[in-house]
Write a structure and sequence with these properties.
Elements lengths: L19 H9 L20 H5 L5 H20 L5 H19 L8 H12 L4 H18 L6 H78 L3 H29 L4 H14 L3 E5 L10 H22 L3 E8 L3 E8 L10 H12 L3 E5 L4 E8 L1
Helix pairs in contact: 3-4, 4-5, 5-6, 5-7, 6-7, 7-8, 9-10, 10-11
């Protein structure tokens, strides 16, 4: 009953089908819900004690058990969702369901233990307040429950104790998870910053190399000028050689710079506009103006590469007439949305989108895809 931090991997592209086993699992569960968490639903068996051992129980008691299970399982799945707002709504709904059901079946107090586990993730800093509130609620239900004594106490007391134990255990998991995630993201950022430093060093070395090559070309050009008047044939030969050497140097420099230069978001937007217009797609943009708050170099590179892949998919697969690119601030960081009015649909994930997701997830972000009314790919990165 431990909601964990899930990573949204619902996106896909139009090629590279997944293995059958992976596809079956993806169809069975949402991408952000770990199927291993289903084992914790075994504690719902506490609902069975009353209808099994109460000689006065009837089909109504069994109907209550079925109704609680049917209503709680979606709340349990929702409590694992990445968005804390969804978890908080699931927490409140779980408490309300537990309160109503416990008045009829004292075993339903086990829902308060689930609620304590969810509170540890949704409100880690206020977990004790939630536990005190849940304990007080158990005390009130013991007093007002129509279930005979001492059965109401026997049913409530274990839940009141375990909501403290489980809540503390889950809070420890929350802290360990947060620390591991922070270290992982820090390591990725350090690695990428080291790569950026190395790229700059190579660029500086390349600049020195270009300076030396240009100096050599200038010297040869001066030689050609001095030979023009006295030996035109030799000057022409040197001029032809000078042109060949200059073209070779230009090709090598361009090739090297293409591999070393940083990827700028504005450049990718301009390239996307040219590519989309060549394909007959109208581009509409909503971007922060130059000089306004913009993403840092690390985030900008990741967003630019994501934009390149998303617009490439629009040209290749969407059959769209219009594409909109939106970049803006969120409460946690930055959000890039690329949406088209094409055929839409959800197909298997390909290498391009997989690579995009890996880069984004490595920085603690998410990639989501919406295949309704065209296709929308949203990339969110925390600052």
């Amino acid at each position: 009953m431990t909601p964990g931090r899930a990573v949204d991997a619902s996106e896909a592209t139009h090629h590279q089908p997944t293995a059958p086993a992976e596809q079956d699992r993806a169809n069975a569960f949402p991408a952000w819900f770990p199927p291993s968490e289903l084992i914790h639903l075994v504690y719902l068996s506490n609902l069975l004690w009353q209808p099994v051992f109460d000689p006065t129980s009837s089909w109504v008691d069994w109907a209550v058990v079925a109704a609680v299970v049917v209503l709680f399982v979606p709340l349990y799945v929702a409590s694992h969702y990445l968005d804390r707002r969804v978890r908080r709504w699931a927490l409140v709904a779980t408490i309300m369901l537990g309160t109503l059901a416990t008045l009829v079946n004292v075993g339903a107090s086990v829902l308060f233990v689930y609620a304590a586990a969810v509170a540890a993730w949704a409100h880690p800093k206020r977990l004790v307040q939630w536990q005190l509130g849940l304990t007080a609620l158990c005390g009130v239900l013991v007093v007002v429950s129509p279930i005979p004594w001492p059965y109401r106490l026997w049913g409530m007391l274990p839940s009141a104790l375990f909501l403290w134990l489980i809540g503390r255990m889950v809070r420890g998991d929350v802290r360990a998870h947060a620390e591991a995630e922070r270290l992982r993201i820090d390591n990725v950022r350090i690695e990428q910053l080291a790569t950026a430093d190395e790229r700059e060093r190579i660029a500086r070395d390349l600049h020195d190399l270009v300076g030396q090559s240009l100096t050599s070309l200038v010297v040869q050009a001066q030689l050609v000028q001095s030979l023009v008047a006295i030996e035109p044939t030799a000057a022409a030969t040197h001029a032809a050689d000078l042109e060949v050497r200059a073209r070779d140097a230009l090709v090598q420099v361009r090739s090297a710079i293409d591999g070393l230069a940083e990827v700028a978001l504005d450049d990718e937007v301009a390239a996307a506009r040219r590519t989309l217009e060549a394909a007959g797609v109208t581009l509409v943009t909503d971007l922060p103006a130059t000089g306004e708050d913009r993403p840092g170099p690390l985030l900008e590179r990741t967003l630019a590469l994501a934009l390149r892949e998303a617009t490439t998919n629009v040209v290749r697969h969407a059959e769209a007439t219009t594409c909109r690119i939106t970049l803006g601030r969120t409460d946690q960081g930055w959000r890039l949305l690329v949406r088209d009015d094409g055929i839409g649909g959800m197909t298997d994930e390909g290498n391009g989108l997989r690579g995009m997701r890996e880069r984004v997830v490595a920085l603690g972000g998410t990639v989501t895809r919406d295949g309704r009314a065209g296709t929308g790919i949203a990339v969110e990165l925390p600052t």
